[in-house]
Every structure is written in structure tokens, then in C-alpha cells.
Amino acid sequence: MSGIVKQRVSAEIDGQVVVFLIGMRVNRPWKVHKWLPVALAMGRMLRELGADPGAGLLGVERFGGLRRGILVQYWRSFEALEAFAVDKARSHAPAWAAFDRAVASNGDVGIWHETYRVRPGDYECVYNNMPPFGLARATRCVPARGRRESAPGRMQAADAHRIAD
């Protein structure tokens, strides 16, 4: 499903999902040699994860501007995210060490992340006349019918669909 879905849809997830927000901010644009490696490292990590579906990354949405970028990543579990982050054979650990050596806390480029564990039934989303996007693209895109017609119903649909559907 890559074109516009001409109906109201929502996401369906088996179990929990972890939402990981990560971004960078270029504080000193003229120091390309400091921020460009950070931006390129993220691209390498995403390619590596894309080539290994078993790693646990379910999907990614990218947003950005000239000085700030953000990725919204959807993961199967916190444990999968953490395993990727600390695995020295993967691209993250060496990239983090390189950042710490080159930038550390000198103010040239900022990086940040936030992690949210979303338990079954504790999410709500709706999309209308959109290509598959966000959580629905990362998991399953389903019609927003029945319990999924309203925000309160969608908030409970992840648990209830196993019994009611």
C-alpha cells in the first residue's frame, strides 16, 4: 500500500510498540566537519536496520529543516532498541563513540532522543486520505470502523479487537 488510502484508517498492533524520537540540531552551521558525520551516521544506521528486519525496527518517519532533523522510529520493543544501541558490531556504538570524541559537549551540534513504550490499547491514531503513514505504516493499516470509528474506541481497540472481531 503506497498510494493514498481514500478512507479513514487506523493502526493495529499485536502487543506493545516503542516510539523512539531522535534528532539533531546544527548549532554552528559553518562547522560542517562536525555535524555532517552525525547526519551521515544516522543514514548508515537506518540502512543497516532496513537490511535486517529481525533487528526490531518497524518503521521510520523523517522530518527536518535546515538546522534541525527528527526521526520518529517505531520499534518492536525497548529491548530490541537497546540491543541495537549497545551492540559494538552494529553501526550505532561506533558512531556514538565518534560523536563523543569529535563533538562531546562543545556546542557545535546537538543530539537528543526520547523513548516511549506504548502498551496494547494505549494508543490512538487516525488517517484519512493519506498514504500509509506513521504507526499505521510501521504496523498494520486497518479501516477505522466499529470501535475504531471514535478516538475513545481506537484507544481501546488494540485490546478489544482480539475478543470482539
Relevant terms:
165 residues; alpha+beta; Alpha-Beta Plaits; 2 domains; 4-stranded antiparallel β-sheet; 5 helices
Task: Record the SSE blueprint.
Blueprint: E1 5-12, E2 17-26, H1 32-50, E3 57-64, E4 68-75, H2 78-86, H3 92-102, E5 109-118, E6 127-130, H4 134-138, E7 140-143, H5 151-164
Antiparallel strand pairs: 1-6, 1-7, 2-4, 2-5, 3-4
Helix pairs in contact: 1-3
Question: How would you characterize the overall build of this protein?
Answer:
The chain is built from five helices and seven strands. With 165 residues, it is an alpha+beta fold. The protein has two domains: 5-14 and 119-164, no CATH class; 17-117, Alpha-Beta Plaits. The strands form two sheets. The chain has a four-stranded antiparallel sheet. Strands 6-1-7 form a three-stranded antiparallel sheet. The chain is elongated and about 55 Å long. It starts with a strand and ends with a helix. The model is unreliable at 161-165 (pLDDT under 50).
